[in-house]
Amino acid sequence: MAAAAESGLLGVLVPREYGGSGLDALCFAISIEELAQACASTAVIVDVHTSVGTEPILLFGDEDQKRRWLPRLATGEVLGAFALTEPSSGSDAASLKTTARPIGNGYVLNGTKVFITNVGRAGLYIVFARTGPDEKAAGVTAFLVPADARGVRVGQVFQKMGLHGSPTGELILEDVSVPAGNRLGGEGQGFTVAMRALDSGRIGISGQALGIAQAAVDEARALMRERGHGQGDDFVLADMATRLESARLLAYHAAWRCSHGRTFTRQASMSKLHCTDTAMQVALDALQIAGEAGAFSGSPFERHVRDAKALQIYEGSNQVQRIVIARDLVKAG
Ligand SMILES: Cc1cc2nc3c(=O)[nH]c(=O)nc-3n(C[C@H](O)[C@H](O)[C@H](O)COP(=O)(O)OP(=O)(O)OC[C@H]3O[C@@H](n4cnc5c(N)ncnc54)[C@H](O)[C@@H]3O)c2cc1C
């Protein structure tokens, strides 16, 4: 992470005036792809920090919030995290139960978030809580919650099947007071903040998937070169590489649309769906080519299979991506 900070990778999307690298969504996707080729855990730590953990401040923050947080996030002094999911609300995020009660010139937050990437390492959590009586999306508001605020606690940190280098766990909020100046966007705007953050986040997850798939293709190629190969292996490798290249073009296209101010919600969902399904399939195919050499614990082939699985679930499961794509298509007429 120190090396990533040094090379500007933690502030890719932050403009130079706030201490970042001032690059665009395509550069972001490629940077995550390159990291994931070597280590999918490092890639998701950086991805969550950069997109859903930092970008909402850029898009929805006031000038004070930008000046206070962006330079520290961009340089890696503070790691960012995004706390939306709760024990009883994952895909149906709008039904979240964490509350933010207005008291004096601020709010008091109570609730439990779960499966939070960078938990315990983050210095800042973007937390979504219910401020209004509306039980669905219109009652949700976003808050900037520093990790050292009184009442913020890390609960269980989970053992996952993959991505072992990336901490994922519970964030517990017990009577956490934040000033009104920590509200990100307006009251009731939180769901919009979350959905916009996830649109960009899905471009990053696409990059992570591409990196895992590229590593699996490269390891299969190297093995085939070393031990010889028949036509059966050739056909599998050709399909793996072709799938990967088509997924990459979809991801870069979504990133390009984002960078050029076009609508990109549907394209980001298509990209996330296709890239993560591709990573899973390509990782399994590579393991099959490797045979027993790929199946033992500690082999890179089995690691790619374990790492790829979570990508089909987080930042909106792939079923949820299909809902987003279909709704957008029907709406577009
Ligand atoms: C490693 C990891 C890291 C994570 N990091 C974060 C993080 O940093 N911040 C954060 O807020 N969250 C995070 N999450 C949570 C993640 O976003 C949720 O797991 C995800 O949104 C799915 O929610 P759920 O697990 O509650 O599954 P559920 O919503 O209970 O879904 C269970 C299954 O049902 C399917 N399903 C649900 N609704 C529908 C529907 N309407 N139609 C068809 N199928 C449906 C889902 O696709 C899934 O297969 C992380 C999760 C993991 C695994």
Unreliable spans: none
Structural class by sheet pairing and helices: alpha+beta
- End-to-end Cα distance, whole Å, is 45 Å
Shape designation: globular
Can you describe what's shown?
There is one protein chain. With 333 residues, the chain is of the alpha+beta class. The protein has three domains: 2-74, Butyryl-Coa Dehydrogenase, subunit A, domain 1 (Orthogonal Bundle); 80-187, Butyryl-CoA Dehydrogenase, subunit A, domain 2 (Beta Barrel), CATH 2.40.110.10; 191-331, Butyryl-CoA Dehydrogenase, subunit A, domain 3 (Up-down Bundle), CATH 1.20.140. It is built from eleven helices and eight strands. It has helices at 2-6, 25-38, 40-50, 55-60, 63-74, 190-227, 231-259, 265-290, 292-295, 300-311, 318-331; strands at residues 80-83, 99-103, 106-117, 124-130, 140-146, 152-157, 168-179, 183-184. The strands form two sheets. Strands 1-4-5-8 form a four-stranded mixed beta sheet. Strand 2 (99-103) and strand 3 form a beta hairpin. Helix 3 (40-50) runs antiparallel to helix 6 (190-227) and helix 8 runs antiparallel to helix 10. The longest helix is centred in the middle third of the chain and has 38 residues, at 190-227. The radius of gyration is 20 Å and the shape is globular. It starts with a helix and ends with a helix. The mean pLDDT is 97. The structure holds flavin-adenine dinucleotide (FAD). Flavin-adenine dinucleotide is lined by residues 48, 82-85, 90-91, 115-117, 160, 163, 168, 310, 313-317, 319-320.
